[in-house]
Design goal:
- The protein is mainly alpha-helical.
- Helices cover 76% and strands 5% of the residues.
- It has 16 helices and 3 strands.
- It has a 3-stranded antiparallel β-sheet with strand order 2-1-3, with helices on one face.
- It is extended and about 90 Å long.
């Protein structure tokens, strides 16, 4: 990806640069290595960028697994990343790994090298590595992160897989309905053109739709395409997506499940950080972005209570960030001193409850969706053939 950079050179003159880089951080690093002080930076749009095949993103999970295997085999950290850079076939990923190695040779810690690529290595990953640098056990930190990411991906995959079949049903039903309305109905409208006065209201509306398509098909197609484009553009806006999520939270059943899903991610991430040696106050700040704004304000209140000396279970219960089962498990963790492990168990409990709900919902929703699509298609067919029934009755 190319970036346009305006920077100050050695003679204090403003210079324009165009650099190929993985992301904005990489572009800044390249400009700094050449002795420039970056003033502004932006991605360069071009037709070639759209025509070129999309670059494969850096596979963080695979990198973590391979790094764990090499370190466990006895290689040093620098040797392990050098090995990964040598076998990497993708130029962008290889350049990134070589840059990590260069920073390690400069004497920088791995966490410092990782945080220069915020779009590749999330803050949670950097914090996990930074905590391991204090204890000297990077392999254990990698194991914790891999286990954490595996569990998070497992829940996400269950939700995605449960939505595939309903989406296929909606797509197939929509195509059949579109075929009936755009192709079959206009041809029926020609046959029934002289019978419109004696038809039911819905049949007349359907046949008028057929006449409209026959007379102004291209215009209707353009209007429908424009509305679809506007809808896609609207859904691409983060503000609208945020508003829709807020509306979903107001639905009691959906809001409760979304709350459990966020709490599961929250407790799993918090537990991983605590087991890695991160303090509870720092960990709470790092995981606040995992919660939606309403829960985030409650988390701030819980963090304030904990900083005042209150127990974790008291703070979480007081701010509504737990369930009755979770409160008891937090109290057990406080008594045993294994708060990180107990938070992992809380997250697993929430995940199992979410999985049961998703399974129940799909078993109920799929038959209802099939019945709804059948009613729509059947209704269109019946309204099309209703004039034939009327004609048969008049002949009798």
């Amino acid at each position: 990806m190319q970036f346009e950079i305006k920077a100050l050179g050695a003679t204090s003159n403003i210079t324009a640069l165009i650099l190929d880089a993985v992301d904005e951080g990489d572009a800044r690093a390249q400009a700094g290595a050449k002795g420039y002080k970056v003033l502004t930076i932006r991605a360069k749009p071009s037709l070639g960028t759209w025509m070129r095949p999309r670059r494969t993103p850096f596979q963080l999970m695979l990198f973590s697994q391979e790094l764990l295997a090499l370190i466990s085999a006895g290689l040093t950290l620098v040797e392990s990343i050098e090995t990964l850079a040598e076998k990497e076939s993708r130029p962008d990923s290889a350049r990134l790994l070589r840059d990590l190695v260069a920073k390690l040779y400069e004497g920088r810690p791995l966490s410092y090298a990782l945080q220069t690529y915020p779009k590749v290595f999330p803050p949670l990953y950097v914090a996990t590595v930074r905590a391991s640098e204090r204890t000297g056990d990077l392999a254990e930190a990698m194991e914790r992160y891999i286990a954490y990411q595996t569990q998070v991906d497992l829940v996400r995959k269950k939700v995605v897989s449960a939505s595939i079949y309903p989406m296929l049903l909606i797509g197939a039903g929509g195509l059949v309905t579109l075929f009936l309305l755009a192709y079959v109905v206009p041809r029926f409208s020609r046959i029934y053109e002289d019978m419109g006065t004696g038809l039911p209201f819905l049949s007349r509306m359907l046949l008028n739709w057929g006449k409209l398509l026959e007379a102004h098909g291209l215009l209707v197609l353009a209007v429908v395409a424009g509305m679809a484009g506007a809808l896609v553009y609207a859904f691409s806006r983060q503000g609208l997506r945020g508003w829709m999520l807020q509306q979903l939270w107001k639905i009691p059943a959906a809001g409760q499940r979304m709350r459990l899903y966020q709490l599961a991610r929250f407790y799993r991430t918090l537990g991983m950080l605590l087991r890695g040696g991160t303090s509870i106050t720092q960990a709470l700040k790092m995981v606040s972005d995992l919660l939606q704004p309403g829960l985030r304000s409650r988390l701030e209140g819980a963090a304030r209570l904990i900083s005042e000396g209150r127990s974790i279970s008291f703070a979480m219960e007081g701010e509504g960030l737990t369930t009755p089962v979770a409160v008891r498990m937090l109290r057990v963790g406080e008594r045993t001193g294994q708060m990180g492990e107990m938070m992992d168990r809380i997250a697993s409990f929430y995940d199992e409850e979410m999985a049961r709900w998703v399974d129940w919902f799909t078993r109920l929703f799929e038959p209802l969706l099939m019945a709804f699509i059948g009613l729509i298609i059947g209704g269109v067919v019946v309204l099309m053939y209703f004039p034939i029934f009327e004609l048969a009755g008049s002949l009798q």
